[in-house]
Amino acid sequence: MMRKLGDVMRVFAWCLVVAGLVIGSISVSYATYETTTREAGWIRRELSSQNAARLRRLIHDIDLGDRPAGVIVSPWPGVIAGAGVSAFGVLILAIRRPARQADLNDHTRRRPTSDLERS
To answer: In the 8-state DSSP scheme, what is residue 69?
Structure first.
């Protein structure tokens, strides 16, 4: 059973839309997980230093909710990539299918609209 190219393209376009949504949501989840993992490593390193000044600074930073910039992973690159993939799928869905030649012949033939034109 052979499918038409238009049907295959519509399925592909819907797959792109879904894949874009999945990419965006997974990137947010990954960024949250990776940030938490890096923060735990940062705390472990500071605790293992056994330096009183660094430990006081760690406690102060945790109280304020501050973290070093290298600990934070941004989800935006994945969200933007997912939006781009979804937008490409929507673009493919928006492209109109070319009409078949038989349909063009039926619509281009002029039909009489009044009794004067019929006779």
So the answer is: G
CA 29-30-31 angle, to 5 degrees, is 95
Element (H, E) at 87: helix 76-94
Q: Which two tokens stand for residue 12?
A: 């592909």
Which amino acid belongs to residue 114? S
Question: What residues contact 67, with CB distance under 8 A and at least 6 apart?
Answer: 39, 42, 61
Break the chain into its structural domains and give their ranges: 11-94
- Kind plus residue range of the DSSP H or E element containing 1: none
Task: Judge contact between 97 and 13, C-beta under 8 A.
Answer: no
In angstroms, rounded to a whole number, what is the distance separating the alpha carbons of residues 105 and 99? 10
Would you state the pLDDT for residue 15? 97
Average pLDDT over residues 78-105: 84
Whole-model pTM: value is 0.70
